[in-house]
Amino acid sequence: MCRPPPPDEASAVPPGPTGLRSRSASAASQAPSEGRESRSGSGTSTSNAYINKELLPAEFGRFYWLTYFGNYAVVYGVARNLWLAASPRAYYVASTLGFTMWPRFNRVTYHILRWPILVIVYAFVFAELLCYCALRLFVAFAEFAVATPKHRELRHALRHSKDYETWLACARALDSSKGVAVWQSDLRSTRYNWPFVKGLIAQLREARASDDWRAVAVALRLCSRPNVGGIMAPQLFSATHTGDPKLVVTDFVEEIAASVRWLTAYALASEDAACVSTARELLGAARESYGRTVLSLSGGGALGTYHFGVVRALLTEDMLPETICGTSAGSIISVFACCRTRAELEEDLYDDAKLVRYLRCFDRSPWACLKSFLKTGHAYDGGEWMDIAKWFANDRPEGVVDMTFAEAYARSKKKLAITVHAKGKRAPPVLLTHLTSPHVTIVSAVVATAAVPLLIAPQVLLEKDPETGVVAPQAGGEAYIDGSIVHDIPTVGLKEAFNAKFVVASQVNPHFQPMLYSTHGAAGEPCRWSPSFGALSSEDAWRGGFVLAALELYLRTDMVNKLKFLADIDASPGWSGKMFAQSFEGTITITPRLAPVDYLNLFSNPTPGNIGRYTREGRVATYQKMAMLRTRLSVERALNEGCDALRPKPALVRASSDHGFAGHGADRPRMRRLGGAGALDWATPSTISAFPDVDADPDAHCFDDDGL
Questions:
Q1: How far is the C-alpha of 193 from the C-alpha of 199, rounded, in Å?
Q2: How far apart are CA 151 and CA 242, in angstroms?
Q3: Sign of CA dihedral 568, 570, 573, 579
Q4: Which of 255, 340, 640, 671 is the most exposed place for a label (fewest CB within 10 A)?
Q5: What's this model's pTM, rounded to 2 decimal places?
Q6: Which distant-in-sequence residues (6+ apart) come within 8 Å of 348 by Cβ?
Q7: 3-class SS of residue 309
């Protein structure tokens, strides 16, 4: 039996009917008692002896068993003496014991049934996977068999194009041979609201022709949504090999960008305060609604080398987003792009020999990996990988040593994000950025997000003191593992951190990339099968026909749902449930074509013989999505330019003569609030009142909220 609480404890928390307090009450009273004990400096107090954490579970265990046996006795007595007197006694015992003791065995049933459920579900998934592979092979063989020699030659030229111009010429030749121009010039489609889009184009053009800024503003408010009228529907970009949508969509996007620039120029030249205020508020709200475009690079071991081709294509065509996120292997390429200036990036990115020389994470021989695994439990050493990552992070003795996220942003003006996963089955993923982790060293974040279990030990992030430059483990010492386990493409985290509403994902994870299959074709990869009866174009066709396309979709979604079911009931071993049940796609998903030999080279360094294929396949896969990305970026960049141009000019802040700093008088030169890292960039209305020596000109409106 439990002892009754002391008088002081009993007055604080009244005991329950059984003389035991609840867990919350015990926890609430524990902290004050410990505080009293530490202040008095005495030994163990009476109240602390009562709230012993080691005794509490045993006391509650005895209490639960007593409750169950009491319930059993009551139920058995009622059943025996009232309405079950004619039944055998064993029936009473079994039934009442089962009803009263079943809740106690819930955890036991989990441990007993978990593995049979796991084996059965995995068996079904394996069988469905075999059927799925056979179906995909049949569709691929049929598409190859029905292609004409001319089309095969053009597709071969597409895959081996050296630049975007060559690829575009081959893609246009393929479209011309299939009569795609007729589809592009036709307004009709069920994929978007073409009458609405056509009406907005006419409204914008008429308003600009009549120099009516109010009418332009009214029309632009209708165009501030990212997918206005459904113009970004993937099916509109999957009917052509060039990835171009219908001509009316291209005209509409160009008209929006032109109207934004026209309104910006009109407001800058106008002396009407209402025009300037309306334009500033409109473009600021539109930019917030439109969001940012972010490039997210997936993991994939040595297959992350494909990402270099993706970055090459985007940089060459001036479409590389300002925000780049990397996970696991993708973090190497994202760091490579965000820690260099434009000139430094162009110098190192196109040099295959230099990339091969520094991409040496898997230098250890299999025998050395085995010895390390038997000794430490991990095949590779995190310190070695950290030294290798320094070149990619532009961490050089003649430059910045131990570069941090904040220093990388200051150097390149690009926003870097890296995903890591805290060690622990239910721990949430963490997104490291220059805002949330400004002083974390980039090389430690790269090794942490690449710390695959059994390959690299869990890593503790390192932080650099901004004043002394001393590097030390992060406070708390939390260890992190591979970020691709939970969030390979962290769309939710990117939206929260950067307002990213358009994520360009480059996916090369070998266990899921082959599953990224579109039954209607994808941007730059139109369906080769004839459309159904009455369909307008190939945008309504099904790969393999409707029956095979429906079967493929059923098998794919059913396998994913089964894996999610195992993760939901906590039956998946370790972290495998999260890894297979997550989303691997973005708004646009770039999928370089993997070769079968890539699965054998998953943990091998790239060689001069295959680095060219890696980068070429990455470039070609990016070319297919270029038209869709250009459609998005044309409006986004026009909004950014308009907001920057309409931002209020820096205002002069005068010095007060009544409160001067030491050595300065009333004739001290006036200080200007700069737009970047200026002397008064910290100033806000609340901080101004705390510093009476500096006051803002009330007519300058330098602290007004401009809506941007």
A1: 10
A2: 14
A3: positive
A4: 671
A5: 0.77
A6: 336, 340, 354, 355
A7: helix
CB atoms < 10 A from the CB of 471, how many? 16
Token readout for 89 is 């006694």
Q: Smallest Cα–Cα separation from 299: which of 428, 191, 429, 474? A: 429
For residues 154 and 173, the answer to whether their CB atoms sit within 8 Å is: yes
- The encoded tokens of residue 94 equal 């079994």
How far out from the chain centre does Cα 672 lie? 39
Beta-sheet strands, E only, within 365-482 = 415-422, 429-432, 459-460, 462-464, 471-473, 479-481
Tokens of 109: 């049933």
Residue 117 — φ and ψ, nearest 5°? Answer: -65, -40
Q: Model confidence over 594-632: pLDDT tens digits?
A: 988 988 888 899 999 899 999 999 999 999 999 999 999
What's the CA gap between 669 and 421, in Å, rounded?
51
Q: Sort 374 into a burial class: Cβ within 10 Å, 0-12 / 13-18 / 19+.
A: exposed
The end-to-end CA distance of the chain, in Å, is 67
Residue type, 548: L
CA gyration radius, the chain: 33
CA within 13 Å, CB half, 529: 22
3-state secondary structure 113-175: HHHHHHHHHHHHHHHHHHHHHHHHHHHHHHHHHHCCHHHHHHHHHHHCCCCHHHHHHHHHHHH
Residue 8, CA atoms < 13 Å, CB-side half-sphere: 10
Q: Please give the Cα distance from 444 to 420 (Å, whole number).
A: 11
Token pair in block for residue 685: 């209305």
Lowest mean pLDDT among 406-420, 575-589, 674-688: 674-688
Choice between 170 and 44, residue whose per-residue pLDDT is larger: 170
Q: Which two tokens stand for residue 137?
A: 């092979």
